[in-house]
Amino acid sequence: MAGFASILPLCLRELTFAAGGRAIIRGVSARFDAGPATIILGANGAGKSVLMRLMHGLLAPSSGEVSWNGQGPARARRGQAMVFQRPVMLRRSALANVLYALELAGIHAPQRERQAMDALEEVGLAAVAQRPARVLSGGEQQRLALARAWALHPEVLFLDEPTANLDPGATREIEAVIRAFDASGTKIIMSTHNLGQARRLGDEVLCIHQGRLVERAPVEAFFAKPASAEAAAFIKGESPWA
Predict the structure, then answer these.
(1) d(Cα 242, Cα 238) in Å, to the nearest integer?
(2) Using an 8 Å Cβ cutoff, are 215 and 81 in contact?
């Protein structure tokens, strides 16, 4: 991140996305600055994953705008990374998966091996560097996906439900890596429907309900006294649409 102009703030202006004749994201506006870890919270089907993909640049909005420090998404491509709920693993070793990410990013060959091994060390996978990525456990594959991101030193890291399919032990390991990213200065923007995880990892919460942003608040205030009926119902474990 050092030595490059910041890609933040990330600004969403009246962001809308529709597919199959149905609006999935409805007029979302928000600004994201460096610093606080941001949790996008909402029920399954609320639109969290689509919103993350719009911010990351994988989807183009039906209307509205995504801008990075006043410029278009292309400007931010090198300064951000995204880790998905089910990461894609190449048919190569764990180390080769990280090396490939560095190659795509244009990192000079002499630097790649050192950066890749540093990243694997950071997520606790140095011992399995030569093991085929696809034989690793689900938790190890998710840590490998985080290692690919770590090696790139992104200014912004998007995490789309990164522990949804993992057991509690693997979840703790992933959360430890996420905290390391946060401590290193990377801006975390993470979606989850897990209330405990939002409390553990977040500084602020954006609550999404049926594609709309219904509330944004510091994490402690959000859980102590949610301002919207939809957020209050979600926290209580009720179905907001019932």
Answers:
(1) 8
(2) no
